[in-house]
Write a structure and sequence with these properties.
Structural class: mainly alpha
Radius of gyration: 19 Å
Largest sheet: none
Keywords: Membrane, Transmembrane, Transmembrane helix
Length: 53
């Protein structure tokens, strides 16, 4: 919501909504990829610990 209001100071309604939507999509996918990367790192560390024994 804050992003939309800040964009309204610069852009029109339509441009503000599109800009805010794209920012939210970027944030969503960044979080998603970070979770996937963390899971892969956890799997790698389990694999390394398993081979060390």
């Amino acid at each position: 919501m804050i992003i939309i209001l800040l964009n309204l100071l610069i852009f029109s309604w339509q441009e503000a909504l599109i800009s805010a939507f794209s920012i939210y999509l970027i944030a969503f996918f960044m979080r998603l990829f970070m979770r996937i990367e963390q899971k892969m790192q956890a799997k790698k560390s389990v694999k390394v610990q398993g081979t060390a024994k």
